Hints:
The protein has 26 helices and 21 strands. It is of the alpha+beta class. Strands 1, 2, 3, 4, 5, 6, 7, 8, 9, 10 and 11 form an eleven-stranded mixed β-sheet that branches. Strand 7 and strand 8 (167-179) form a beta hairpin.
Amino acid sequence: MRAVLRLAAHEFHARWKGWAVLVLLVGLAGGAVLTAAAGARRTDTAYPRFLEAYKGSDVLVGPAGSGGGYDDALAGLPDVATIAPIVGLQALPVGPGGKLVDASVTVPLDGRFGHTLEVPKMLAGRQPLPNHPGEVMVDQIAARDLHLRVGSRLEMGAGAGTDSRHIRRLSERVVGIMVDRGSVVPVTDLDKTPVIIASTALFRELGPGYEGSAGAYVKLRPGGTVSDFSARAQALTRKFPAAGGQIFLSDEAAQAASVERSIRPQAVALALFALILAVTALLVVGQVASRLLLAASSDNGTLAALGMTRGHLLAAGLVEVSVAAAAGAALACGVAIAASPLMPIGPARLAEPDPGLSVDVAVLAAGFAAIVILLLARVAWPAWRLASARQPAERDAAGMPDRRSQAAGWLARAGAPVTVVTGVRLAFDSGQGRTAVPVRSALAGLVMSVAAVAAAVTFGANLLHLVHTPRLYGQNWDVAVDLQFSTITPQRFDSITARLPGISGWTFGVHGTVQIGSGARAPVVPAIGLAAGRGPLTSPSLLAGRPPRSRNQIALGTSVLRLAGKSVGQSVPVTAGGRREEPAVIVGRAVFPNFGEGLFTPTDLGEGAIVTAATLEPLSSAGNGSGYNFVLVRFAPGPRRAADIAGFDRAMGPFCATVEQSTCVVNDQRPNGVTSYARIDGTPEVLAGILAVLGLAVLGQFAVTSARRRRRDFAILRTLGLLRRQLTAVTTWQVTGLTGLALLAGLPAGVAAGHWAWGLFAGNAGIPPGAITPVPLVLLMVPAAILAANAIALPSGRHCARLNPAAVLRSE
């Protein structure tokens, strides 16, 4: 063993520059991989850590009325640990031109909101003091849209009750810019508008007449469930007539899950990048390590004569590589720690509770071990072959028969030019000994890169297709009249649309929630109740079954079905409309666009339920069933369809002005999942670009290595009469042949992988599983890859063409 260590130490001393380069390569490549891997984990966990660090609540509950002591009674329920009551003000900020801007203006009723529950993450400044009515803090959305910073003056207009003629002007000073749970990735309609948190003193100064809504964030005790709390909170309304006899409840866990689903694609993209980069780096770094071992093998004959066995020589080589790998892995960990402030990415960066340097011990430890083990595994077979007493030339002559390219032979028999035949032969003949070229490694790296790019392009095309195809995310109508908490009667809607052309039918609906299943884990999910209007009933897209037709039937989203462990045709206990639990038959599996009210969790792709309007009536703001919260409107196709929709929008304008929303005709009901995908629809393309660069790097290494090790071949070709332009053409055909074979193998595999990945994604998200193939983009990859490959190899080709044959052959 001492002899093995002394031999390894001698090789390190004799070739320290080569080993230092290997350590640097391992450190930089491994550091990039570990940075991406740790960043993926940090990105994926940022929002849950945000909620924990900033004391996120479990439930948001609000009575239909003003409450009248209802909040204080909520705090006394047995499953409530903490409560933070809030009030929504009837106030809006004044924008450019003196117009009021949609926003959510909230006031904490005491010191619990923002301190013991729902603490905001301050980006700048501080929270408003409770006894200073002229101070507000705003979220980053408000700061961006209203051009605010700490110290700015925010002008607002406040109205009492329904009196819109007398607006009280308020001038508030912005003392803080924050991020709250809703502004990281806006889920509800109010989250998407600027959020302004005013001082408690402002509400006391204005008085109850300016109250727009009341509610409370609730943290449940350990073991408490949303379903139990919901039942108790609903029963409590009977003791407080001012509560309006019903509550609106949002399961904040469901909303958090929606945010996490929005962030996860970016974490997955980072993880995929880390994986592809790791494989590519292993191919490149493994070649460097193998060349160092090859250089050391020239003394094996002498060492064998001195008594060293093949096992000793193998062990010495592996010790050399393991020491270099360990040093490089340590450097990689340092690089990953130094680069950690770049992570997380996207919205998770807003949520990250501990920005800056991060030491992910689990990822770094696993990465350190993986770097050493994988590099040793990569060089194990070359090290065994090289651990021989024979000289390289002897090994070549004795055991390595000359294998010629069949493709080059076929081209020669077909009469192809000598440049084509020679280039293809050099592309696929790896050679032997010191002149060996890493053809297999380069081809494997290129195939992997082409397949990865094709898969990313295919997946990205399907993602873009989803974002711009309403039918795929559940919207089977042209426009919706969405009144949120307000209602419209069928008679009023008929009178508005009686003379409008182009309308082919409509369906009425109400908002609400239902509890699916029994027991502590039974989820409370957002629901819509549908009622026939004119023409066939319109519902969100169904993946299986049909819409419900009676109170004992229900259609659910894919995620809800998965959570409940049910399928279409089975029965599930359902609690809705304040009634007792009743069994309902699952008659359909649906995809849901966005249906929601205010701050309460909306439906989202596989999250939601469809019932009849009568099922939700007692808990809907439609009250006694005389009105509906929304109307789904269909228009006849044809050249006048756009004009008919515009006319409908104008006709609804006066009615929309009388309700809480100034704009209630909605053309686009993309759910939050799709909106989030729209925000990151460039991620697959960026990933594809990075993977393409990695593939070109592998090809570039191949071209440089080939030019250096085949100097003698090019010198002989020049001596035989080939001109410089012909030698350049040989290099061109060499990289073209290698790239062409990689495209032939990689493109079909990549498209198939993209379809497979999309199928997994669609099944998990609860959307139609069919995938499209972006044929023009895939075909465009062929000339693009060949041109890029030749551009990368051009300097090496020109260098080979300028060689001095006499000098090269004399040195050989």
